[in-house]
Design goal:
45 strands, Maltose phosphorylase, domain 3, 6-stranded antiparallel beta sheet, 15 helices, binds beta-D-glucopyranose, 10-stranded mixed beta sheet, 5 domains, 883 residues, alpha+beta, Immunoglobulin-like
Length: 883
Amino acid sequence: MSLPILFSRLFIVFTVLVFSVAEGFSQKIAVQNLTVEHLVNPFSVDNSKPRFSWKMQSAVKNTLQASYEIRVGKNEAIDKSRVWTSTKKSDQSVLVTYAGPDLESKTKYFWQVRVKDNHGNASKWSQVQWFQTGLTEKDWVSNWITVYGKDTSLASPMLRKEFNIRKKVKTATAYITAKGLYEARLNGQRISDHYFAPGWTSYQDHLQYQVYDLTESVKTGLNAFGVTLGDGWYKGRIGFAGQSKFYGDTRALLFQLEVVYADGTKEIFITDDTWKSSNGPILSSDIYNGETYDARKEQPGWDDVGFEENALWKAAKILPKDKVKLVGMSGPPVRKHETFKPIKIFKTPLGESVVDFGQNMVGWVILKAKGPAGTKITLGHAEVLDKAGNFYTTNLRSAKQSNEYILKDNVAQSFEPHFTFQGFRYVKIDGYPGELTTDALTAVAIYSDMKQTGSFTSSNTMLNQLQHNIQWGQKGNFVDVPTDCPQRDERLGWTGDAQAFATTAAYNMDVAGFFTKWMKDVSADQLENGSVPYVVPNVLNKRDAGSAGWADVATIVPWDMYVAYGDKGILTAQYTSMKRWVNYISSVAKNDLWNSGSHFGDWLFYRPNDDNDGRAAVTDKYMIAQTFYAHSTQLLINAAKVLGKTDDVNQYEALLKRIKQAYVNENMTANGKLASNTQTAYVLALQFDMLPEENRKQAAERLVQNIKDYGNHLTTGFLGTPYLCHVLSRFGYDNVAYDLLMQESYPSWLYPVKMGATTIWERWDGIKQDGSFQTPDMNSFNHYAYGAIGDWMYKNITGINPVAENPGYKEVLIAPKPGGKLSSAAAELETVYGLVKSSWTLENGIFKLDVTIPANSTATVILPKTDKKEKIGSGNYHFEYRY
Ligand code: BGC
């Protein structure tokens, strides 16, 4: 069928957005989902010029915001307590900067917004939302305290104090942080659902505190605070070299409760040497090794009023002031999420009692038990069973991942750990008194509280399982910092893994706050010479830095977040760090060639035994390094353009030309063949535009030939994999990209799926075809890097793309590319403007596409096979034609 005929058969149906609003609201537009600095009602905004975002809801197609009005006040009656109003003709609804008078510290501000649209409709005022400013240095009047004597016990100390709240309370706000981890309780109750507070940052540079609104929880009269401290990242084991006490050997607490009474007077309660401390039931607790809890050592009531402190309770010790910078939270806290019941309790061939929860996850098991005092129950955790069906923990290396509970008297008890997490699907239980039933066991997944923003589904169930595995890889490894893996003695913020996965992560979940927080650590841990560590927070040797594709996290993640969320602020905040990284490479490069230093290269690429015919997949590490030198320089130029830094643009554009020329001189023959004839070599050269225009087509052909030579298999590692299918698509080989994606035999994305994976594996063949394992030295079954294919799936299969020139999905590109024998695919993405949807079916030769674009966004739709471009505004659209 010719194209014109095709077009004549194409018809577009517009359906109006079905719009339901609460409380009988009748206007045509509304404003919802208000956030400040990416967070809903944040408690500790450090930024003196916080930024406001909102989403417009409209039942009318082609809606754009024409103007907005924001008002900020000191109480809910904003109008009467107003500190700032701003009315602007503008379509900006994301990250609008506060420009009123200086904000006071530790103060709650209320705000709301209303908008008008391009059709003359006006919204009502939004619901009132708020943000609270953080403490300045001088607002901290409290003391760091620790246990009596020296903090040498493995046990977790408990610290307690009763306060007399003398009058009726208007507000009560607690500010808390710790060296180590803390769990705070008030009058017998945990004060929040946060876990692993204060979170992991580059502690030498800054430490987060948390803010809790306790207005409703405190009572007039005596109140008791009890805080337990754990070793955490601060004092416990961290890093694979067996080290502990990396940041310090003394766990400590800093606590400040600020009460404003109804009569307007104020009182501040602090930590000092009138607090008492004692050890309790947590005999030891370590992130890698797990926790030992002896219920016989519980001290009932210790966290409540009226507890009688026995001789074990000693006065806490005040520590000298130190210089650590205290900062508010800029990311989400870690919380509990999904729970799982056992799908099977069974005996392994070795006779061990094992429970299968059906999903590899990160968190822990809540265990119920009853038995004679002193009974010890041990829970071991594993990701997989071995070939024979036995519990397999060798790949955990030295991490014990084991929790021990010792029962008190014959009463029903429920246990869960406090300061440790495990990566597991299977749990081995020893010493359980009586019969173990599913009732006794619940697994709970914990991760940073990121809202799920994306979903992807298709007619292929294996592909859907792959998407599931990618999402669970993200959940398991976004536990306050982006980690490589969550189970063995590592769990570190490997920079290469994070940059490889960042764009996929931003589809699946709202990671704006998460990465904003972590990028501060990237800057903080950047070395004096500008090099960037292998892991952040950096707990390895200082010299462990500067690996191509790892250190480039400094430029890649800020740019990715800018594109995904339209956040210019992250570019402003990270610009110096980005520039320092590029300048570092320049300082070690010779004649613009980066051919020194130690690099991981295309980590964990496919290693077949075919070196003899020249098809081995080894890519020269310096060749890779040069492509990342170019990539980082390009991203720095992009950022400089956004920020209006013209001098830098000119300077680095000239540098970029030289970098590419140096690459060509060093690595390309006159006919365009590359020094390493590998998939990764061609992928990186094409992705980063290293080759002269006229050489690109043939390079893409060589890439495709290489893939064919391997029988439609990929051979790429951590650095080539994220871009592989993108490059194929860009050069017109969507079919080859689909061949790779749908490939079920090793090496491929679906091979682990076929082998029963529920998360992404570290290696293409973590479990080999004969059921045996790869080397236990490095064989994680929950490692997100190869999950980077998710980015291609959203962008190409369902075709949801951001447009960098108009970031944050202010402008959307919808360009689905059916293939891989799929008869349907659908994706949704909750962007900062609202919901983008793209779903299609291809049945009986008819292609049907449904698209949703949120208010205040526009889109270009490129219809597959026709290349026809449609410019559309917000609303729901249906396209249908013979394919
Ligand atoms: C980690 C990785 C990391 C790599 C660097 C491994 O131990 O698990 O994912 O990027 O080391 O070589």
